[in-house]
Design brief:
Blueprint: E1 27-31, E2 37-41, E3 44-47, E4 49-51, E5 65-70, E6 82-86, E7 90-96, E8 101-106, E9 113-116, E10 125-129, E11 132-136, E12 145-148, E13 162-167, E14 176-187, E15 193-196, E16 198-201, E17 204-208, E18 219-224, E19 231-236, E20 248-250, E21 252-255, E22 258-269, E23 272-277, E24 281-286
Antiparallel strand pairs: 1-2, 1-12, 3-10, 4-5, 5-6, 6-23, 7-8, 7-12, 8-9, 10-11, 13-14, 13-24, 14-15, 14-22, 16-17, 18-19, 18-24, 19-20, 21-22, 22-23
Length: 289
Amino acid sequence: MKRAALAGFLLCGLIALSRAADPVSEVVTVTDADGKTVKLAKPKFTTGVKRLSWLNSAKSADGPLAFEVREADSTNYAKGVVTLIPLSTLEAVTYDTGKQSVAVAVAGLKAPLSGTTQFKGMNTLGVEGDGGKFVGGVPKTGVKSIAFEGAKPLAERPKGINWLITIDQPKSNNPKLKVANLKALASLPGGREVLLDSLPTWHGPPIKFAPADVRFEPIEILGVDPVRGVTFGWVISNPAESKAHSPFVPFSVPIEKQKGTLLGLLGEVPGGWKFFPWHTVAKIERDRE
């Protein structure tokens, strides 16, 4: 059962962080395809980045910029699982055109994150300034690296509940990815995104992600139900339950007196957040280790 290729979701949160508290590096050093080094002051990022508006307490579509590091084996669709790394924590993004790979050095992490550039538009990072325009992760003209000044680790976050998200990718044996403090991400008119602590259901109680002492049965996504509209179904992994009685979660939900759209799941990982579009998720469960 395949889900529609819908865009991802982010946590609706109680997190407050302004752009002023999370600035982008004022200077980046680019090593171009020929090995020439160029310094760009007050760089502007053009591709491969996303604003984390759910971190903005001002309730606007603005927010700190993050580099979207695409998981190599997350899905067969173009929109896959991504790790969102704030640009303020980036030390360097290094490309190997021969191996079609990228290494992302992040302040506070012992080892760089890795990804692939074998597919068009995946893990590319574009930047421009007085010294020119540059893009990493593209054939022939792609830069070798983009280095950032003044990178700082993310502030320590409160310890929370750990989760395992099983990815719908048979070619990779349906891997389980570990995250903390799982939320649902929803978008609102105007481009702002918010985080939700639970998922609404039709004709039933919401599916709550917290607190830790509340029992959470593992659940599986059945897929989009074209008869009921833009919704998806869950089945609790319990032999006593029937698929016919599985709760349905509507994609369109009222949030702050507006029509919101559920995009996917978001969880904390070292150095940032991991986002799971609905069509990439096969199963959600608590990590009991």
